[in-house]
Write a structure and sequence with these properties.
Distance between the termini: 31 Å
Shape: globular
CATH class: Alpha Beta
Helix content: 25-40%
CATH topology: Histidine-containing Protein, Chain: A
CATH superfamily: HPr-like
Length: 86
Amino acid sequence: MTKKDVTIRNEKGLHARPATFFIQKANTFKSSVWVENGTRKANAKSLLGVLSLAVSKGDVITLSAEGADEAEAVAGLSQLITELED
C-alpha cells in the first residue's frame, strides 16, 4: 500500500468541479484508491464519497492506493490536487 498526505490549497476545497476532475483521474488507475479526511475515509473513485468528506482549504488529506499501479495513482492524484485552482 502506498500513502501520501496532501494539503488542500484550492480556495473552495474539494468541491464539485475539482472533485469531478479528481474522480476522473482516480478512475484511470487499476488500483483501489482511497482518500481520508480526519477520521472519515471514502473511495476516491466515488463522487458522493469524496464530496461527503467535506474537504476544505487547509485540510490535510491522506491518499492511499493498493494494487498494480498504486505508486502512480498516489503520485498522479497528489499532483492533480496541488495543481487544482478554482
